[in-house]
């Protein structure tokens, strides 16, 4: 008579990294130009070495980003349509598309650049069975934060030495907090 045991061993993934165009962001800053003919940007969050593969979550200014790309083979219920319409009201400026493949060590986030504002913080948070056993709830998720820096075209015109040019400034952080 033989008895077989299966031993499941969980391994915490490495600290996550956010890549833009397959490169780590210097100083964890995402610098974008507005206006720009490139409408969307794609970020990749990678957390390798975990077993089981980690679960990924994206956040913008501490709010979880929903995936607005819906692929269903069956019609959506009226309740699901109402939920999606509500999400579009809040997140429509970014129209986020998240691609999480099961048992993968990375997740991608595609968002509209025009919806981002100077000072926005994008977070990739990962967890798996190994991170969840930590006694400190603050350490059950591994995360990385990047800050958005928007460079805006100040418009037409020539700057002449000795003359003054005034450009109105607006605090984007205050506007963002009022919207959410």
From TrEMBL:
Alphabetical list of Gene3D superfamilies matching this protein: Immunoglobulins (2.60.40.10)
SUPFAM superfamilies in the cross-refs: Immunoglobulin (SSF48726)
Species: Schistosoma curassoni
Protein origin, superkingdom: Eukaryota
Residues covered by the Ig-like domain: 16-145
Protein known as: Ig-like domain-containing protein
InterPro entries registered for this protein in UniProt: Ig-like_dom, Ig-like_dom_sf, Ig-like_fold
């Amino acid at each position: 008579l033989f008895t077989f045991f299966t031993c499941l061993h969980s391994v915490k993934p490495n600290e996550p990294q956010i890549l833009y165009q397959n490169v780590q962001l210097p100083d964890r800053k995402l610098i974008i130009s507005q206006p720009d003919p490139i409408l969307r940007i794609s970020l990749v969050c990678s957390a390798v070495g975990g077993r089981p593969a980690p679960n990924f979550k994206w956040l913008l200014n501490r709010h979880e980003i929903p995936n607005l790309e819906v692929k269903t083979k069956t019609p959506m219920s009226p309740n699901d349509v109402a939920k999606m319409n509500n999400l579009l009201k809040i997140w429509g400026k970014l129209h986020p598309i998240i691609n999480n493949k099961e048992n993968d060590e990375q997740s991608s986030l595609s968002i509209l650049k025009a919806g981002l504002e100077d000072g926005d913080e994008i977070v990739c948070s990962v967890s798996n069975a190994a991170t969840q056993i930590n006694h400190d709830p603050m350490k059950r998720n591994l995360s990385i934060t990047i800050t958005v820096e928007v460079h805006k075209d100040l418009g037409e015109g020539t700057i002449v030495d000795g003359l003054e040019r005034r450009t109105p400034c607006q605090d984007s952080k205050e506007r963002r907090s009022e919207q959410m």
